[in-house]
Amino acid sequence: MDYEEITELLRKDIKKWVLEEQKIHEVDAVPISAQDKLLLNSYFEPSILNSVKIKIVSSIPAPDFSPKTKKILKQNGFNFDKIAGLALVDCIVMPMEQKVKGLKWTSLLFHELVHCTQYKLLGISKYIELWVNGLVNNDFKYEKNPFEIVASNLHRRFEEGKKFSVSEAIINEAQYHNIKLPYQTFS
After folding, report:
1. Which bin fits 139, alpha (ψ -120 to 50), beta or left (φ > 0)?
2. DSSP at 32
3. Which residue, 7, 21, 70, 87, is most buried by CB atoms nearer than 10 A?
4. Contact 83, 18 (CB under 8 A)
């Protein structure tokens, strides 16, 4: 398979999986706690903090991708097993072990909320398109995916106690890389 065929297959399968998982988990997900909102309200738009829900699970569910996608990911050494949290558009899924770790919980929640903000600004299709491109273009190295780099950099700034707007930081990053954001407002 060539690059275009691989990225198209991955986009299709990942989008299908994200939307299926979102539908499954949002049913009994809960709003972000008042305590977490208080800690995060100077970073995120109120519409993000008020719309995103959280589902605590025993472990992150393994993706049920097509055999071709599973083969491509396995051949390239990419494994979803190492993911500590998962942003599914406006639903964050996290393992129970993360919930009990205090500040680590808030840091992980922050990181996943960055991805929810990216989803909101880009739309689902564009987010997945660019996320897959970032994965494939960086040898399937999760930590080299530009979306993960941005989330990790903002996460680091958060842990250092710096105050900033996540949406403004994402918009600035997109402008720097000439990425058109379909949605630049939070209403």
Report:
1. left
2. P
3. 87
4. no
